[in-house]
Design a protein that fits this description.
The chain is mainly alpha-helical. It folds into three domains: 67 residues, no CATH class; 92 residues; 166 residues, Intergrase catalytic core (hpI Integrase, Chain A, Orthogonal Bundle). 45% of the residues lie in helices and 10% in strands. It has a three-stranded antiparallel β-sheet, with helices on one face. The chain has a three-stranded antiparallel β-sheet with strand order 6-7-10. A two-stranded antiparallel sheet has the order 4-5. Strand 8 and strand 9 form a beta hairpin. Helix 10 crosses helix 14. The longest helix has 19 residues.
């Protein structure tokens, strides 16, 4: 009689036991089943990557397993290496190992490259927007997101990332340079070179430096047009001309434009000022935050957090505007919300039209402020501190000099005041002919 291999203390359940449901307490005591965890592909789990060489008929063949895009299992690969009559097995092995190395199958980025071969640009763009673009400032998110949806996704969305190369992107740049759009006024315009460069910048951010680092794209050149800026005379005209619905609104508008003119703060930084940021006794404003689309955000750069000293007249205007108020925003709408740059820009342009001045945006105040500081020879380090730039190179792009100032400076640094120039000096010039000798030669002739 055969011996049972079941332990004596182990009882099998009867058929009736299958009909008995476990109690709630028993069910709670049973741990949940571990979810099925399918191991992802990993280079560390690739057993060798050299395959082997086999002899079949009069040929040496190299055999190995390779990954296939979109499939979990690897497939067998068989490649001819050489004829048996022309090489030994050792020679075939060396040639085969070289062929394996050229495929890049042993490189650390092999699986990444394989994944890119199937991932479309639209998928990569979605990942980038969710995980990278979301960490940018709101203003950048709006502009970059618009570039993705308006230009990049329609052109590259269905293409695998691995197929996007320099040639395709260069053709894309040329097409953008020919692209036209209709502005709000109904006029047809072409994309500006700066807009095209912005679109390509976003494309590079999505693709990653490994893809485009060896590219040599030809982008449209930026125009050398000088940035519009307000002169001190224009600033005074704008401040005096702006009006509101009542005396209080007029005072607020004039004080806001005076603050833009006298501080060089960005418009968002002006909108984000709180009364607590003002030290009017010391004549100082502290920039701590900015406003974008009605929401308070952090400042543009680390250098943007700064103290700005202001002139006495601006101090007096701020005191009159606040009228004893010690809390809240310095500049606010009727609904006690921060100003929007579009509404303020619309107000500015109505004033410029009224005065017959050339159109400009709010940033013209900042350019004008830097230009005034430069013309008055304020030390560069102090200008950097007041305007919140990272370096003098950036400040140089904000510096504009009027023709009168340039001519005045040219006269001030003149070095030719002691030079004698005229008919007398030309007779004795070291390089010119001597008039007396020339006349004598003429008479002799």
């Amino acid at each position: 009689m055969s011996q049972s291999i079941v332990p004596a203390d182990c009882a099998f359940p009867s058929e009736s036991d299958h009909l008995v449901l476990p109690s709630a307490q028993q069910a709670a005591s049973v741990a949940d089943a571990a979810p099925s965890r399918k191991r992802e592909k990993s280079m560390s789990r690739r057993p060798g990557q050299s395959g082997r060489v086999v002899k079949k008929g009069n040929w040496w063949y190299g055999r190995m397993r390779v990954d296939v895009p979109g499939e979990e299992k690897r497939k067998r690969l068989c490649v001819k290496v050489g004829q048996v009559d022309l090489m030994t097995e050792s020679q075939a092995n060396r040639k085969w190992l070289g062929m394996v190395h050229e495929t890049g199958i042993n490189r650390d980025d092999h699986l990444d490259r394989l994944h890119l071969a199937t991932k479309t640009f639209a998928e990569e763009a979605d990942w980038w927007k969710a995980n990278r673009l979301s960490l940018f400032k709101p203003s950048c998110q709006e502009n970059m997101g618009r570039h993705v949806e308006r230009y990049l996704r329609p052109r590259f969305g269905k293409l695998p990332v691995s197929t996007i190369d320099e040639r395709q992107v260069q053709e894309f740049v040329a097409d953008l340079n020919r692209t036209e759009y209709v502005d709000p006024a109904g006029k047809r315009k072409r994309l500006s070179p700066s807009s095209i460069r912005g679109v390509i910048t976003v494309l590079k951010l999505i693709l990653g430096k490994k893809v485009w680092r060896d590219w040599n794209l030809r982008l449209p050149e930026l125009p050398e047009n000088e940035q519009r800026y307000f002169t001190p005379e224009e600033m005074v005209q704008i401040i005096n001309a702006v009006k509101g619905a009542n005396a209080a609104e007029t005072r607020q508008w004039r004080t806001m434009f005076a603050a833009l003119s006298g501080t060089g703060l960005r418009c968002g930084e002006i909108f984000g000022l709180h009364v607590a940021d003002l030290d009017l006794e010391a004549g100082r404003i502290v920039a701590r935050r900015s406003v974008w689309e009605g929401e308070e955000v952090t400042l543009k750069t680390k250098k943007s957090r700064r103290e700005v000293d202001i002139e006495p007249l601006l101090v007096e205007m701020l005191k009159q505007h606040l009228n004893g108020r010690t809390t809240g925003r310095v500049f606010r709408t009727k609904n006690d919300t921060p100003f929007n740059h579009r509404n303020v820009r619309r107000k500015l342009r109505s004033v410029l039209k009224q005065l017959g001045l050339k159109m400009a945006g709010l940033h013209a105040f900042r350019h004008g402020r830097v230009s005034v500081l430069q013309e008055n020879k304020v030390p560069g380090d102090l200008i950097l501190r007041w305007v919140g730039h990272s370096n003098l190179r950036t400040t140089g792009r904000y510096s504009h000099f009027s023709s009168d100032f340039r001519q005045q400076e040219a006269v001030h640094v003149a070095v030719l005041n002691g030079v004698h120039f005229g008919s007398k000096s030309s007779e004795v010039g070291p390089n010119g002919p001597k008039k007396a000798k020339v006349e004598q030669k003429g008479e002799a002739a």
